[in-house]
Task: structure prediction
Amino acid sequence: MPSTHLLSTLIVLPGIIFMLASLVISMRMHKKVPSALRRKWLVMTCLIAFFLAGYVAYLFVHAQDIAFPLELLTSTVFLGGALFVFLVMRLTGTTMRNVWESEEKVYEANVTLVAKNVELEEEIAGRRQAEQQAQNRLQHLSILHTIDLMITSTLDLKVTMTVFLEQIMPQLQIDAAAVLLLNPATLTLEYGAGKGFQTTTIQQSKVRLGEGCAGTAALERRRVLIDDILHPEINFIRQELVTDENFTSYCALPLIAKGQVKGVLEIFRRGKPIEGGEWLEFLEALSVQAAIAIDNATLFNELQSSNTELILAYDSTIEGWGHALELRDKETEGHTQRVTEMTLRVARVYGMSEKELVQVRRGGLLHDIGKMGIPDSILMKEGQLTAEETAIMHRHPEYAFRVLSPIAYLQPALDIPYCHHEKWDGSGYPRGLKGEQIPLAARIFALADIWDALIHERRYHAAWPREKVAAHIRSLASTHFDPDLVDVFLANA
Result:
């Protein structure tokens, strides 16, 4: 049938074209095929060539109408086709297996990468946390160092506690803090310093040992931590403080130094609980620093108070010695106090410092202490002294030196007892000092001593008028007295 013959030819021709194109593509891809598949790929290329040859042979036999068993040719082509399909399936299976293995490896790689990313994120988070902890500890050390410097730089207890609270509040992120100091006489905790309070209620705090949270912390020497200060079972005795300040959480730490409770550090928060762990450890370290600061300031204050009391006792003793000397001679009663005050007045005008004035006062009160070594027969004699008696009387400055010089506390005050009888022209006693060799305090006191002796009645002369005494002193300028001091003295006498 011509029409069937033509149709078969037209169908085979595109097949030849496709087979030829497939053969060209296969030959071009041959070098890119993995070595493990290259043999199979070569067999598949040969089969394509076989198909192409079969199509061409079929077309030739069909076109020339050659007697040829086409069934044998067709079955052979079908066999090659089956083999081709088998190879294609094997290649496809191998490819799919490689794809699956690749996907599995990719999946495993992704799982590994995800795990590594998780580990890396955990490590980064850990490092960040460690860095934050390191920064916190560095800040803690910085605050502790600042408090150490504060302890060594000031011994004012109020200032110490105020600065301490100012340092710890931002770091601990607390709303308010207070230091209650222990009064050992009354065994009560009393307000010492506070920061962050909205009212003055905290300043009225007085808690006995063992009472309330603060008293318990001090008596039992342990930390008291309260997350809910409003809970009815909590024994917080200062309810007005909670009501006025709206506090919700609380912590009290005893301040202990050298085994003794010095007070209690109170921490307050509004609407936020007190943390634990490292926060509390730092708080306890701060409480140790606060206790040391309180102990140092207290010791200094006690030492200062004891020193003041000792100085007052010394000065009272010196005044007692002065009164005792005057008891030997009722006629000179009040003389020591008057000449001392007059000397201080002139010395202050002349520009002497307060430290020097202290020694001037002590020297003035003890100016005649050497007379303790003078016999009453000479000291109380009504008439004129003999030359021998005068020589004995002139020894009383030396006696004063012998009595006072071994006392280190009174050595700076020796100028007046030892030198108030020296004269400007060098004719005085006991050492014949001249001019500015005579200490300034002794020069001023010599003027006061003569003034008071002349202006008051004595058993060997009547009291002189002030004008006569002033004229007499002016007449002795440059001989007995320092001429530069005479006018200053008389202006303030």
Summary: Residues 154-301 form a domain with the Beta-Lactamase fold (CATH 3.30.450.40). The chain has three domains: 2-121, 154-301, 328-492. The mean pLDDT is 82. The longest helix spans residues 70-153.
